[in-house]
Amino acid sequence: MTERRFDCFSGEWRSYVTNAPEHPAAAAESGCAMCGVVSEGPGIGLRASHAEIAVLDDDDAPFLADPPPPDVADTPLTPVERAAGAFEVVVWSNDHDVILTDLSVERLARLIDVWAERFAELSARNVDYVLVLEEQLGAGRPADHPHAQIQALPEIPPRVRRSLAVARAYLQQHGRCIRCDAGAQTASSESRVVASDSRTFAFVPFAARYPYEVHVQPRRHATSLLDLSDPERMSLARLLHDVLVAYDRLFGRRAPYRLALQQAPTDDGNWLEVSHFFVEIAPSVTGPGPGRGHGADVGLARSSEWATGTYTVHVAPETAAQALRNAALS
Ligand SMILES: [Zn+2]
Ligand SMILES: [Zn+2]
Fold first, then answer.
1. Which residues are placed with Cβ below 5 angstroms of ligand 2, an ion?
2. What's the predicted TM-score (pTM) here?
3. Ligand 2 mean position to 120 CA, how many Å?
């Protein structure tokens, strides 16, 4: 089953994928599909200069280019749709022991170019939002080959949509982009700035959701990676590197992280003036953090849910009900 179901109570769509491996250990037993792919040459749609970075389709994804029809019939109160979209993985190393922190600034900039190429390609399709997501839960875990995930989604994720509505209201009231204004205020006070240069700055948001959460954004109003010049992409790479290295130093070990690129929606919905591109990053460290016992346990939600508010469930509701029914009767 790969389908989307509408929850009439919350007004939100949810994704169902029941053919994906249920546990990382299961994937590990069948071998790592990402090992060795980098040396085999350019991935789909990549220039030869990016040969050391491969892009693959993810066939167990919640959204597919040609999804099967839903398993159930819909009703007015229970709409169901084919899960049309795309999931890709960007593999930038054959080595399980490296994390983004280990990459040079130049290589990070190369990866940013690949993210931009895939954003351009996927946003030209009939999708409403393209999310770039990179998650490192712990170097060396056998089922966690370092990679980025690129999700081409059939709707603007609920969390993103809420932020855009707030930005739209601010624009109507003040005539300016809220992220431009708040960014200028943050940059001038410096109390929450982590690193900066003339083009980009990294800061802890005023009301951060997670301990040590950082946003990295261009100083000027750019709506996606496609708006950034080569020097601006290099600046972004340098600051991402600074933040990731800072996490390692802060926690005194290689700190796992989550990183999401929030770019303008791709639905032709006139979002450009309220979409200020930024990268959100948070360490995914369990146990006590640095300082006076402040825990930094941010491993509370999967990264896609963390970034979008969209939940992906790996058991069909009917299967769950049947299992519970059987359990109740036994
Ligand atoms: Zn691997
Ligand atoms: Zn802006």
1. 177, 179-180, 221, 276
2. 0.86
3. 20
